[in-house]
Amino acid sequence: MPESQPYYLKGSPMAIRLNNVVGWLARHGFSLLGTAEMSVRGRKSGQPQRIPVNPHTHDGAQYLVSARGHSHWVRNMRAAGGGELKVGRKVRGFTAAEIPDHEKPLVLRTYLERWGWEVNQYFKGVTARSSDEELLAAAPDHPVFRITVEK
User: Fold this and answer.
1) What is the pTM of this model?
2) What contacts 149, CB < 8 A, 6 or more positions away?
3) CB–CB of 147/95 below 8 Å?
4) Which residue pairs from 84-87 have beta carbons closer than 8 angstroms and sit at least 24 positions apart in sequence?
5) How far out from the chain centre does Cα 126 lie?
6) What pLDDT digit, counting tens, does each position of 16-67 carry?
């Protein structure tokens, strides 16, 4: 039986355009509800790759959640181990550690409570109101990184 590919939902042309606008706004100092532009070194090119993200705080720790699954930024983050978050002139470097699936359900629940209006469609029916078992079943499809921001 062939090995299946990890879950990844590529953005539509409209979603890509919207991400470009949100990233441009963050780069110029306008954060929409806490968004930031993340920069992470490309694993192949070595060049910084930029994408808007929704940094999420849960239980005193900060996280980056990949709603779309095992995207390019996720693969780059695994290789680089950190990056930068930018809003206007404020640039904060960070290190990142991917958390195991069994630690994700509470982070995913609070992330979906905060950002579900924007990202629910990427979670294949799982919402903030889903059971712990449903969130745990969705965990392998949604990489989560605990980030430590440099002071």
Assistant:
1) 0.93
2) 62, 85, 92, 93, 94
3) yes
4) 84/38, 84/39, 84/40, 85/36, 85/37, 85/38, 85/53, 85/55, 85/149, 86/26, 86/27, 86/36, 86/37, 86/38, 86/39, 87/26, 87/29, 87/30, 87/31, 87/35, 87/36, 87/37
5) 17
6) 999 999 999 999 999 988 999 999 999 999 999 999 999 999 999 999 999 9
